[in-house]
Design brief:
Length: 853
């Protein structure tokens, strides 16, 4: 911001851009560059003071303008997910205003105007000039005045964007840090949504700081106070989506401004997912639970299942095969810190080679440049190996849906998981604001439709409508399948939701009252309304579905999509709030000009499906179950020569653990030679994935495991691969006690006050199986109850090739029982625990288990 005690010269127009209803004007008064915009001839953005600091020098309007270049940005790209999938057309006016500061620093202001908004960014120096030293990017001097604004919808700034959103009159807005996207309204109905686009590994994210000093304004504030850059550096786009609320909701400007893909594209498979964590936080550790949710996804005709924290790589391939037989794809949760660095990122290829389709990565919680360099690395590696990505504890969308189409969603929202953490944190008013703010800029993984949320204030109709009102490349429905089945109308409606949208329209509402969203897939419209406040009636303007309007997917909105056509009459299935927080249905027909008055409960909502008269209303079908490919053997030892032979069906695609190889065995199209890497160690396991054509693009899948034999010497089992495992309380823990239901929540293995550095921590009901392949001679271990479960007891047993060899009863406080078991010629070894009738459940430690060969 430039201050002066003397009057400033009258601004002189530098350039003007016009697109449809929008006009952007850049003026210069000798000290300041000022950018303003109008909508339909009325002020939409008051003059923004532009500038940035480089090497301690404020680059503003001082100095001289050395050139102005204009160009037309015309491109098309494919949107695989979002409010309007298919081919999108970008047609923007762009200006490059080249400047030289009094010190001789060259910089460029870049302006972009489309039919739905304005964007600007700064370029430092010329891209062709590569200095010997880096430059230092300092404070951004962009000041966005809000003196003409009436009301704002904001959230307190947090780098993972999970604070509540609220509406506030501008006169009452407290100075402080807020988050993008930030919506403001002006007299006359124009709205401006401020956000960002095109942030990569050379930048950091920013947020607006609201100040009243010098008049109400937003100061754009990057996360890093300073940043080392090279000449030619461009800041992210500062984005203003401008127009009516319907135009704002339909905008794809944030994606349109982002660069096209520069590397391999993994085309995502959008859709719906079953997710067990919300209803049972420890369920990610249990294969049986994941199979139950997978079966429900198939029953609903959905596409995905998400396995949250606690999964074990031992059983993931089995789940992948189980899911693939039903046309369902598996996604795995991971903390970002477990995928930080090249070695950690190598896990992605291994997971993909099991047949895993995507990852949910969590807890990044930073807008700094260092984290964006991490984002860049995982975006590129996940694209290379072919995994979809869903970011949680993350930044908000800033155009990656275009640049990296395999990014299917982000959290960046205070969503349904907050019911789990805090009981009653989600208000209906918070929900209503989202389609006008956060969800405008990209996919939003709110994890909706949580009927069993404790003490929720929203009605069942409101909850159900979240599945329509909120868009996510993959929508993770959070409640337990039984809660959906208890509500047959809701269960059927969730099955009917399509995997993608071709068009999106706002039919009514505002951020303080309600949101009525219509989304089209093919010839069918899916409508959802959510409201805050008292019970009342909402008007459903059916006529707007039979005519053009401000919609993502319409040519008028810069997009093209097939299938939109006028309809003289519609058949409608309407599901509304009923008495006592139930749901009820109505079937009706309506003509083009009609509006339907729909009663809603307090904090209520409704959903509907509308199709051309006579067309089928309900179209969902459960998925069929296909056989797995034939694979022989399912498990075998690698020979002394480092190879083994796999037999399967002709035409199979083979994936192997990175470092392993699979080659056709001569002319036999059913046989493959599997070779272990020379660096493999005793007990290492290669998972071989066999794929054959399946359904809906999901290959039928089966797996085989090949294990390197245990050579001479002693081999610890605490870090050896499992052939199979299960544990009643969370995952099997390595080198720590069982702890609770989360992974890695145990403590040091401790028995009768003595600590032990290695072993396996399990609960009172568990089984861990190792494949020996006849290569070991003796098992040595000790076993006892861990001190974390006092006054407890359990039975343990050791099985060799499925036959019980040893059984013991263990009680808390006892010293470890030392065991030495012959295993000559054995192929499998199982360490099992079982509950003891009448005893408190015990946590068992298998201490320093090791094989001798």
């Amino acid at each position: 911001m430039i201050t002066s005690t003397s009057p400033l010269p009258t601004p002189v127009a530098v350039t003007e851009l016009v697109e449809g209803d929008l006009t952007a004007t850049l003026t210069h008064d000798g000290e300041r560059l000022l950018l303003s915009a109008t909508h339909n001839g009325a002020p939409a953005i008051d003059p923004i003071e532009l500038g940035i600091t480089v090497n301690g020098e404020a680059l503003t309007g001082t100095g001289e303008i050395t050139g102005i270049h204009q160009e037309r940005i015309a491109e098309t790209y494919t949107a695989y997910t979002g409010k309007a999938t298919g081919t999108r057309t970008v047609d923007h006016a762009e200006r490059h205003i080249e400047l030289r500061s009094p010190r001789g620093t060259e910089w460029t202001l870049i302006l972009r105007l489309g039919h739905d908004g304005l964007a600007f960014r700064y370029q430092i120096g010329a891209a062709a000039a590569v200095p010997a030293d880096t430059l230092t990017l300092g404070t951004e001097l962009t000041r966005i005045p809000l003196k003409g604004a009436e009301r704002a919808w904001v959230l307190d700034y947090q780098t993972w964007y999970e604070t509540p959103r609220v509406g506030v009159n501008l006169a009452d807005l407290a100075p402080g840090d807020y988050g993008f996207p930030l919506l403001v309204s002006r007299p006359g109905g124009a709205h401006v949504l401020w956000s960002e686009s095109d942030i990569d590994a050379t930048n950091s994210g920013a947020h607006p700081v609201f100040t009243r000093e010098g008049g109400p304004a937003l100061l754009v504030t990057p996360a890093d106070p300073t940043l080392s850059i090279l000449a030619g550096h461009r800041t992210p786009w500062r984005v203003a989506i401008i127009g009516s609320l319907a135009q704002v909701v339909a905008s794809t400007l944030v994606d349109d401004l982002a660069p096209a893909p520069s590397g391999p594209i993994t085309a995502p498979r959008p859709g719906r997912a079953a997710w067990s964590w919300w209803s049972s936080q420890y369920s990610g550790a249990y294969l049986s639970d994941q199979k139950r949710f997978t079966e429900y996804a198939a029953e609903q005709g959905w596409e995905h299942v998400l396995v949250d924290c606690g999964w074990d790589e031992t059983w993931v391939p089995e789940l992948v095969a189980f899911a693939a037989a039903r046309g369902i794809q598996v996604h795995l949760w991971s903390s970002w810190s477990d995928l930080d660095g090249a070695e950690a990122l190598s896990k992605l290829e291994r997971w993909r080679n099991w047949g895993v389709a995507g990852i949910k990565v969590d807890f990044m919680e930073s807008e700094g440049n260092r984290r964006y360099r991490w984002y860049d690395a995982i975006l590129r590696e996940s694209a290379r190996v072919g995994l979809m990505v869903n970011f949680h504890g993350s930044v908000i969308p800033r155009g990656w849906a275009k640049t990296y189409p395999h990014v299917v969603s982000y959290e960046g929202i205070r969503g349904a998981e907050y019911y789990v953490f805090y009981g009653n944190p989600l208000s209906a008013s918070h929900n209503v604001i989202q389609p006008f703010t956060r969800n405008v800029v990209g996919a939003m993984d709110y994890t909706p439709v949580t009927f069993s949320a404790p003490e929720r204030e929203t009605s069942d109709g409101h909850e159900l409508a979240l599945g329509i009102v909120y868009e996510s490349g993959i929508t993770h429905f959070a409640d337990d399948p039984d809660r959906y089945r208890e509500r047959p109308l809701a269960n059927r409606f969730l099955a009917e939701l399509p995997a993608t949208w071709h068009e999106t329209r706002l039919l009514g509402g505002d951020p303080d009252s309600h949101a009525l969203i219509a989304r089209r897939h093919g010839d069918a419209w899916y409508l959802g309304a959510i409201a805050t406040g008292a019970a009342r009636t909402l008007s459903l303007p059916i006529g707007e579905l039979t005519a053009g309007g401000p919609a993502a997917g319409n040519p008028a909105a810069g997009n093209t999509a097939a299938g939109a056509q006028p309809r003289a009459a519609l058949d409608i299935w309407l599901v509304t709030d009923g008495p006592d927080n139930t749901l009820e249905e109505t079937l009706l027909s309506a003509h083009g000009g009609e509006a339907i008055e729909v009663p809603i409960a307090a904090n209520g909502g409704f959903v509907a499906i509308a199709v051309p008269a006579g067309a089928p209303l309900l179209r969902a079908k459960p998925r069929t179950v296909l056989p797995e490919p034939v694979v022989e053997p399912r498990v075998a030892a690698i020979t002394a020569g480092g190879t083994a032979t796999l037999h399967t069906e002709p035409g199979a695609r083979i994936r192997v653990t990175p470092g392993w190889s699979a080659l056709p065995a001569g002319d036999n199209e059913r046989a493959w030679t599997i070779t272990a890497p020379a660096s493999a160690s005793a007990g290492d396991t290669g998972v071989v994935t066999v794929e054959l054509p399946g359904t809906d693009g999901v290959p039928r899948t089966a797996h085989a495991r090949f294990v390197l034999p245990f050579g001479e010497g002693e081999h610890p089992l605490s870090n050896a691969p499992f052939l199979s495992c299960h544990n009643e309380v969370g995952p099997v823990e390595r080198n720590e006690s069982n702890g609770g239901g989360d992974p890695h929540d145990g403590t040091t293995l401790t028995v009768a006050g003595t600590s032990y550095p290695s072993g396996l921590g399990v609960s009172h009901n568990s089984a861990v199986t190792f494949y020996l392949g006849g290569s070991a001679s003796t098992l040595r271990t000790a076993v006892a109850v861990d001190d974390e479960t006092p006054d407890a007891a359990a039975r343990v047993s050791i099985e060799i090739d499925g036959t019980e060899h040893t059984r013991l009863t263990l009680r808390s406080g006892e010293a470890p029982h030392d065991l030495e078991i012959p295993v000559v010629g054995a192929h499998t070894l199982t360490l099992r625990t079982q509950p003891l009738d009448g005893a408190a459940p015990a946590h068992i430690d298998w201490l320093n288990p090791r094989l001798q060969s």
